[in-house]
Amino acid sequence: ASSSQPVSNGSAMSASAPKKTLASKYGDGFVTSASHPELAEQYGNVGTSSAYMGASRPGTAVVNKTSQAPNSGPIDLTQPPELSADQKPIADGLIAFVTYFKSLELGAVEKKQMTEIEHGVGIYIKKLSRGHIDADTSATVGRVLGALQNRDFVAAMKAQTELVNHHWREHKDWLKGLKFLITMSSKKSG
């Protein structure tokens, strides 16, 4: 027959090298290139199995140790902890703002903000009492408080922004509440 396709006979195929087969460990014949790098290479699935090459156990989480225990939450603002003489006026001023705003009629959004403010002030005072806030950060919070007491909301926001830009990683748990305090003060002080 004059066909352009090559014809092979069965004996020529059996004489070639034995075909290597891969089998699933479950015996179901389903094999993926994710678990067999040779298949990934053969089919061009770059990146499917090479991500775990040399790893003793794929998916092992890397945990970074922290230098201090996580914060368990704010303190009760009606019973603040003992603070040094230079720190106490800042804490008392922040608590006075919280007490004042809690006495006002607040809308639903303002109530949520008030919860965040109270939480933030509580965590700030707790960290302050434990020595987790340095003198410069405390002084900047003092500037925020002084600006709020003088109704200089632009200066208060500027000092808060400075804190966020330089200390967000270690103090984000109370900085958000401080921002809401400034926002609410600008709306409700009067």
| Structural category | mainly alpha
The succession of helices and strands, N to C, reads HHHHHH
**E-strand count:** 0
3D shape = elongated
* Residues in helix, %: 40-55%
Between the first and last Cα atoms, what is the distance in angstroms? 104 Å
Arithmetic mean of pLDDT: 78
Question: What does the main sheet amount to?
Answer: none
Number of helices: 6
Give the radius of gyration: 33 Å
Q: List unreliable stretches of 5+ residues.
A: 10-15
Note the beta-strand portion. Answer: under 5%
Account of the 3D structure:
Helices cover 53% and strands 0% of the residues. It contains 6 helices and no strands. Helix 3 runs antiparallel to helix 4, helix 4 crosses helix 6 and helix 5 crosses helix 6. About 3% of the residues have low confidence.
In short:
The chain is mostly helical. The chain has six helices and no strands.
Task: Kindly list the characteristics that best describe this protein.
190 residues, mainly alpha, 6 helices, 0% strand
Write the layout of secondary structure elements.
Layout: H1 10-14, H2 37-43, H3 88-102, H4 108-129, H5 135-149, H6 153-188
Helix pairs in contact: 3-4, 4-6, 5-6
